[in-house]
Structure formats: C-alpha cells, structure tokens
Design goal:
Blueprint (H helix, E strand, L loop, with lengths): L3 H4 L2 H8 L3 H12 L6 H12 L19 H10 L5 H8 L3 H10 L2 E5 L9 H20 L23 E5 L6
Antiparallel strand pairs: 1-2
Length: 175
C-alpha cells in the first residue's frame, strides 16, 4: 500500500480533469484501499489547488516561532534591571511565559539587591539604654510602673525586610 505522501500526486491530476471532491476521494479509496482519504481531505486539497497553490507539502503546524528578540530583551533589561517580568512583557507585547523563557536563554536571573540595614546604630542603642536606665532609677524613687495598665500585650520585633530585585547575569553580584 503506498504512503499518503505518494498518493497525494493524484489530487492535482483529478483537479485538472475537473473531477469532484467526492468522486476523487472514492476513486483513490477504490484504487488504494478504503479510508485512505476522507471526503473532507479531498475537498481541502481541491480547494487548495483552486486557490492556485499546487504545492503537495503540508502546511506548517505547531507553535509559531517566538517573536521575542533576545537582543531587544537584553537592551530592555539593561535599561532598567529592576523591572518585573510583567512590565517587560507589557513593553515587548508578548506573554510573561515567553519573557521568562527568553530571560533564561540570555542567562539573566532575578537577584535581590544587597540588604541595607535599618537596624539600630550604636548611638541609638546607647540612647535607648540610657533612657531605660533612667526610667528604672525613677521607678526606685517613685514607683510609677505599678500604675501602668497593660492588657497582656506582647511586643515582638517584626522584621519586614522589603528588598527589590534586579535582572543580572548568573555570575554577577547584586549592587
């Protein structure tokens, strides 16, 4: 039994003879075996020839080539390395997943900026120590802490470090 690609050559022949799609499908199936080509396939090929396309090759299918130019992406990232993937995708008018995939291709990774400490300086610590010491001394002379009403409050240090990230090469350190 011949392959589908080998039997496609019959379609231009039947088209030039003016045979209908149903008769073309029936002729091919009678000669080469049942259900080799359906009526829909015959209609599609004859329509293609009628439109002037006499190529017997299949049309390209699948995922289209990416529209993200890696050089353009690199320029956009280098202009502002602190952009999010969403902002870059909006600027290039592509999907976020495409931007993420191409950022990996150009070997850019999101790294957090260096931490700038907002903790107490030595001077601030000394000032707090002096204030607490003076309050304790004052309490010895005139007990005032007994008059403070608390409602079982707990004081917990909440360290909410918000750090920005930036796109850098894999081996590059954050600034």
């Amino acid at each position: 039994m011949p392959s589908i690609n080998e039997t496609r050559i019959i379609f231009p022949y039947e088209f030039k003879r003016g045979t209908s799609a149903s008769k073309t499908a029936r002729n091919i199936n009678e000669a080469f075996g049942e259900n080799l080509f359906s009526l829909a396939t015959a209609k599609r090929w004859l329509k293609k020839f009628k439109e002037g396309d006499e190529s017997l090759e299949n049309e390209e299918r699948g995922r289209p080539d990416s529209v993200v130019d890696n050089e353009e992406l690199k320029r956009v990232v280098e202009v502002n390395p602190r952009q999010t993937v969403r902002e870059i995708a909006g600027a290039l008018e592509v999907s976020k997943s495409s931007v993420s995939r191409h950022l990996q291709q150009i070997e850019k990774t999101k790294k957090l900026d260096q931490w700038i400490s907002h903790e107490l300086t030595e001077k601030q610590k000394i000032c707090r120590l002096e204030t607490c010491s003076s309050l304790l001394l004052r309490n010895k002379n005139d007990p005032f802490l007994d008059r403070i009403v608390t409602c079982d409050e707990k004081w917990i240090l909440y360290d909410n470090r918000k750090r920005n990230g930036q796109w850098l090469d894999k081996n590059e350190d954050p600034k």
